[in-house]
Design goal:
mainly alpha; two-stranded parallel ribbon; single chain
Length: 526
Amino acid sequence: MLKVGVTPWSHPDEWNHVRELVLNRDREALQYFQVWRSRSVRLPVGIEITAALLEASSDFTNSLSLSMGINRFINHVSHLGMNIYGFSKLYSAAEALGIPEWIVDVRHDATHGQMPSLYMLRSAFDTCWSWILLNYWEHKKVCESSEVISERLPHLLDLYMYLKIYNIWGTTSLSSIASEEAVYSHIHGLWASSIQINGNNLLKYSVKQALECVSVELEKLNASPLEVARTLVEEDLLVPPQEFLQSLLKDGEEDSDCVELPKILISVWRNIIESIDHKIGARHLVDCLVDKIGQDYVEESVKEYSSAWVVEITEGMAGRSNNLKLKTDHGCTLASLESWLATPNRLIQMLLPCFAGLVCLKGKSVSLLDQLISAAINETDSKSKYDKEKVFSIDDIGVNNNVDVSKKESLKDKSESNGMISSTWIRQPDSQWSRGKLYKTFPGQTWDSLWLPDSCTWEHPKLSEGQVEDDICGGLEVEAVKVLWPGQKRPLPSDSDSNDVPAFYRNEVVNTKKQFTPKKKRSKRS
């Protein structure tokens, strides 16, 4: 059953904005709290506590203001502890919530006894503020709509690909796929996490019905076309693993020597690509593919199939593709060409005619660009005649200056015949590397000139009337304790102590995406 709740904030973005203000101790958050009070009879206790502390933070030299904020904090927290744990004593409730006993003493002294010093009030305030941030605001970020889209979109598109493939193959019932345990389990998992209808019973639907449900969910998600294009490329949906691609090949397609996209794969993504082209232009999808081709960590086979997609899409943009019907007024300019050639490699060089055709670049200009790319990737017609395994020393760079010109030329020819590097470098004598010639010095300058003289003394801070030295200090350094609320499980020690090194420094492979190969009964080739 769908649960509906009414909140004082109008949108998750508003809550997250106020959260950032609170984390920065920005008093502008109080204006939002006042608006929220006008919209709701009662605010959550965490917001009430925060408002009380922010109001008290207007003047850290005002003992009454600070003591009032601490008093309201303890009162709210005590009611919270009494309602949750059933304690009747203030000290017991504070102990259960990880609040130090001395803060309760400060509250009692300020309320019923002598006003504590500013030093103690500031220390208590900082502890209370750290407590509310740690136990309320740090984990209260509302999931933004963009985050929801980025989480659901890859699952929906992955599910769409599988169902579309089986629909093209003519599979009518999903129960016939259940025999392929790995594939069906993967599809069922994607369905359960992406589709929220009819109790997630996938077997109630035919392949066509399930595909229509996924298409409707994609429309309801209302993801931006650029986000869809990036997801297709970054999640390896346009270029699945090699085994997956092989399962999509028809008889006769396997014999091709060049890299060609399976016709079924183009049919799977035709509607999505044409939709992207209709909304923002297919050139944005080309941008994502070119970025993928330029990444060093991407496998060479993935780069090659990505290049094949670029060829197919650019042919559609030029009106020459039989598979994709794209707009011919694609809007590609010389700036687009520059961005595509920004990271040159052999595949980008092969795609140059496709790119040049989109911006109406022909003849000598294309030839010059090809030569520039060749120079950039160091693929010239003349191959190096030097042994790549030979280890060269500084003596191989040039010829000794003490030898006359004729001998230099003979030594130069000899070095080339022996596989040594021919160069116009001149080896300088050791006298050229004296200290004075390596860096510039200034006469009379020493390190002593950078330090204050010994006669300098530090002035003591000036105290106002009636203020003692302890009052000018910021306060004690006290760490807040995270509360273990009812229903939460305490993490095991091994969870936190097993790895002292942060995750981004560990040599581990995480979040490895798995794709399962769909299977279709195929006739044996004669």
